[in-house]
Amino acid sequence: MFDLAFLLAPAFATFFLGMLLRKASVLDDQAADILFKIVYHMALPALLLSVLPYVAISTTMLQLPLISAFLILLTLGAAMLTGKTLNMPEKSYAVLVSGSIIMNLGFVMPFVQSFYGDDGLARLFVFDISNGLSAYTIAYSVACRHGGSIKKGLGPKLMTSPPLLALITALLLNVFGFRPVPIATAVLHSIGGLTIPLILLGLGASFKIAKINPVHLAAAMALRMGLGLALGVWLASLFHLEGLDRAIVILSASAPAGFNTMTFASVEKLDREFAATLVASCMIASLFLIPVLLTIL
């Protein structure tokens, strides 16, 4: 237990530092957005290119995007049924559905890196393929439809996504046995090392809770983390996963609601207070759940 606390202490400390900097007015929403943009456009692509080309990709790893897709579709059906059963307002319903299916793997990433190293990160990145695609297709479509804005051009947006392009490039480098030259690897590793601290600072600075319908909040958290955990355990068993692959699936499946839940709610004028409170509440729950899962997996 002491070793686990030692490994996770930097992640917790950086997250709470982001909260303190927000409290001290050093960081605000705009600054947090800038941190996430740096991660999205530079740090995360560099991390992908510095890790994936060097990892031995097993046949089991190739099942991870499929498992992620099954998880998302099953959660989507449950979220739509729950929202209709609760007779939620349209703009809150859209937040419930999108928040339930977007997994915040950026929040899980520091814990995976601390506990499982590059092998764990590689599996997390591969699992995230379906999660990233569904966020900008299914979840964003739900937000647009219920926010009254039907937008096109999601395809071009996906295909110009720096993390997605970096992921595809890194996987191709791995498959064909190519490696970046040593100086490029050193630069990528240095820039990629910014990913985890910037994500944690941004998440801490974005942390906020508002008063909303507690039934709606409980339902959304149960769908994203409770049902996600149950489905993760079931799918890992169904696909006969063991060891690190099993651990990554279960940790990812029980991740908190993704930060894009807030982004989509803001852009499409949905229930922004519900979105912000859902993301923040899930992060609080994850701070307790993830260490427990790391201990028993």
Describe the structure.
The chain has one domain (2-296): Na+/H+ antiporter like fold. It is globular. The longest helix is centred in the middle third of the chain and has 43 residues, at 105-147. The relative contact order is 0.19. 78% of the residues lie in helices and 0% in strands. It contains 13 helices and no strands.
Figure out the total of helices: 13
The outline comes out as globular
Number of domains: 1
Radius of gyration: 18 Å
Q: Approximately how much beta-strand content do the residues carry? A: under 5%
Low-confidence parts lasting 5 or more residues at pLDDT below 50? Answer: none
Features of the shown structure:
Na+/H+ antiporter like fold, about 80% helix, 13 helices, about 300 residues, single chain, mainly alpha
Secondary-structure map:
Blueprint (H helix, E strand, L loop, with lengths): L1 H22 L5 H23 L12 H22 L4 H12 L3 H43 L6 H6 L2 H14 L6 H11 L2 H11 L8 H25 L4 H11 L6 H8 L4 H25 L1
Task: Describe this structure in a few short sentences.
With 297 residues, the protein is mainly alpha-helical. 78% of the residues lie in helices and 0% in strands.
